[in-house]
Amino acid sequence: MPKIVIFSGAGMSAESGINTFRDHDGLWGNHKIEEVATPEAWQKNPQLVQDFYNARRKNVLAAQPNLAHQLIAKIQEFSDCHVITQNIDDLHERAGNRHVLHLHGNIRLAKSSAPGAQYSETFYPIQGWELNLQRDKCPQGYPLRPHVVWFGEAVPAYEQAIQLVQDADIFIVIGSSLVVYPVAGLIHEIPATCEAYYIDPKADHLRVPTQYHLIPQTATQGMKMLFDQLEKRFSNQR
User: Fold this and answer.
1) Burial letters 194-205, b for 16+ CB under 10 A, else e
2) Fold of 3-237
3) N or C: which end of the chain has fewer CB within 10 A?
4) Catalytic machinery residues
């Protein structure tokens, strides 16, 4: 059974109606990134940050997994499939993916805003879409913040992601612009024998090494093309 590792970015969720992280004018939800996605922003105006992520969470809850999410879940039927995602939504899980590693956090969870709690592995499920600064606090009395990796914070899951990529037989990059580091560096961690694909409307070899097969399609279109190939190839090995 092959080990297939999927690395998904914002283009995957965009087809489910979730706003991409950053558009062409450097804004996200009409806010500058530094106003809502840094530790300094939280220190300066926690209510603005909380309101911003509450709106993002409401958007996520209203969204549904698209065909690409569903096909990735079906890949589990004939492979050891792992998903590494830059996305903070839970659409991979809701589509039925069992092994999902969130590099930038999961907006459906919260964590303490206490000093030093940035890398804590204690998370609190959020019921509904709203976190309230006055009501929702950790046992030590600090307000809960979104479980999201902000600019200026390290990516705790990155080393685990490298291990997954280095063990991959097939590696599929889908819907990522590959401009956010350090996680974009994962594309260089694949073994020399790995079969690699890059699905993105702007896919080219300026973004990925020549080891990658380019599929210049949207996430759903490209995943449908690739899934059909993989299913025919591996389904008889089950």
Assistant:
1) bbbbbbbeebee
2) Rossmann fold (3.40.50)
3) C
4) 104
